[in-house]
């Protein structure tokens, strides 16, 4: 799909409105964006913040996570997830993933919980929903909060509702440059209650509980608690509001693109597509497992194919060595996974070119029959 329609018409009007108001930080445009997202998800509220990492950090603070607490989290995620945990003073407890989905399973989550566990933080890798509803009763009884890292999963479905709409968890989205819905930069948190929404808004605004509108009507304001400077800018909100108008079309393109890859790659020896449950997900990426990943990675890069690895596991990172534990499934995945080029402006010809290159590299590695 040609990217040009995303850069003209309503987009220009939205950015002009943001510029005309002259208030480029938090403004009524951010509140309109929050309303738009909440309406799309079918929830009472959404709290917009500056990034997906801020969303996780603030959600953890709202759940009263701090020093001495433990957060159960998969090692298979972007390091931002772990850095958000450490920013609260808490510690990560890394757990395994299902090798077919690269997501956590309820049994592994429950087995990892300790008396120090304050939060369970599933990562909705690739856009695939993670359903931990079977654990709700036991986690509630232990006063453990579920915070979803749904950075990849805006628009995906869990059960009979969109991710974020079930209100069994604090759900955190990223609206960064390459996400399913982009604001250029930004993030959002879906609160479970009105009171929780208030805490999130105070935390994102340097501990000031009064809204921007309320502050404009008085000569002073009160800083009530610790907080971060993590409000979304009006310019980013303006971009997000326009992108939301196109979201259904973008979601359909992402689904079609992923299915084209899955169809094209089927039957290539040594290549397995990681399942995202595409009928219920808006795919963020297309990840494959390869027997000879490193050789394929370099061969494809040399052909001009922009492959990547998302992500090197965190329990093996030097910064997180203190919390390292044996995770053989994750470590095997680390040696095999590779992300293929994936964005909604790609054409079917682009997909065919990538598939052909993957087939060639598989033939060279001796894993694919000619």
Explain this structure to me?
There is one protein chain. The strands form three sheets. The protein has a seven-stranded mixed beta sheet with strand order 1-9-8-5-4-2-3. The chain has a three-stranded antiparallel beta sheet with strand order 10-11-12. Helix content is 38%, strand content 13%. The two termini are 32 Å apart. The protein has two domains: 4-245, 3-Layer(aba) Sandwich (Aspartate Aminotransferase, domain 2), CATH 3.40.640; 247-365, Aspartate Aminotransferase, domain 1 (Alpha-Beta Complex), CATH 3.90.1150. With 370 residues, it is α/β, with parallel strands linked by helices.
Largest sheet: 7 strands, mixed
Round the Cα radius of gyration to an integer and report it: 21 Å
Which stretches of 5+ consecutive residues score pLDDT under 50?
A: 1-7
By oligomeric state, this entry counts as: single chain
**What CATH architecture of the largest domain do you see?**
3-Layer(aba) Sandwich
Instruction: Indicate the percent of residues in helices.
Output: 25-40%
Strand residue percentage: 5-15%
Number of strands: 12
CATH homology superfamily name of the largest domain: Type I PLP-dependent aspartate aminotransferase-like (Major domain)
Strand order of the largest sheet: 1-9-8-5-4-2-3
Q: Calculate the terminal CA-CA distance, rounded to whole Å.
A: 32 Å
Number of domain units: 2
Could you name the CATH topology of the largest domain? Aspartate Aminotransferase, domain 2
Overall morphology: globular
- At the first level of CATH, what is the class of the largest domain? Alpha Beta
Q: Helix count?
A: 13
Order of helices and strands: HHEHEHEHEHEEEEEHHHHEEHHEH
Mean pLDDT reading: 93
Please state the structural category. alpha/beta
């Amino acid at each position: 799909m040609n990217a040009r329609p995303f850069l003209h018409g309503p987009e220009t009007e939205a950015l002009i409105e943001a510029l005309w108001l002259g208030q480029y930080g938090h403004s009524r445009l951010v509140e309109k964006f929050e309303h738009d997202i909440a309406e799309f998800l079918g929830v009472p509220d959404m709290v917009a913040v500056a990034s997906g990492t801020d969303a996780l950090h603030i959600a953890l603070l709202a759940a009263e996570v701090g020093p001495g607490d433990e957060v159960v989290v998969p090692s298979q995620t972007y390091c931002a997830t772990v850095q958000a945990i450490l920013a609260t003073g808490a510690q990560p407890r890394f757990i395994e993933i299902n090798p077919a989905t690269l997501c956590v399973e309820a049994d592994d989550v429950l087995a990892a919980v300790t008396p120090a566990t304050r939060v369970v933080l599933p990562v909705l890798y690739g856009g695939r929903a993670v359903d931990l509803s079977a654990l709700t009763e036991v986690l509630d009884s232990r006063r453990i909060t579920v915070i979803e890292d749904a950075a990849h999963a805006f628009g995906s479905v869990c059960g009979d509702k969109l991710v974020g709409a079930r209100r069994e968890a604090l759900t955190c989205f990223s609206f960064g440059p390459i996400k399913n819905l982009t604001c250029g930069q930004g993030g959002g948190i879906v609160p479970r209650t009105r009171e929780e929404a208030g805490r999130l808004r105070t935390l994102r605004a340097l501990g000031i509980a009064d809204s921007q509108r309320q502050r404009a009507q008085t000569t002073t304001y009160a800083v009530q608690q610790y907080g971060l400077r993590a409000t979304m800018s009006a310019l980013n909100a303006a971009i997000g509001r326009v992108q939301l108008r196109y979201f259904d079309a973008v979601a359909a393109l992402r689904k079609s693109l992923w299915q084209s890859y899955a169809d094209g790659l089927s039957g290539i020896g040594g290549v397995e597509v990681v399942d995202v449950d595409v009928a219920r997900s808006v795919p963020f990426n297309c990840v494959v497992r390869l027997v000879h990943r490193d050789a394929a990675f370099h061969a494809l890069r040399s052909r001009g194919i922009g492959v990547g690895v998302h992500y090197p596991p965190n329990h093996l990172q030097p910064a997180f060595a203190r919390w390292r534990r044996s995770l053989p499934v994750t470590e095997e995945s680390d040696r095999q996974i590779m992300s293929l080029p994936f964005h909604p402006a790609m054409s079917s010809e682009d997909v065919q070119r990538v598939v052909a290159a993957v087939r060639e590299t598989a033939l060279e590695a001796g894993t694919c029959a000619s």
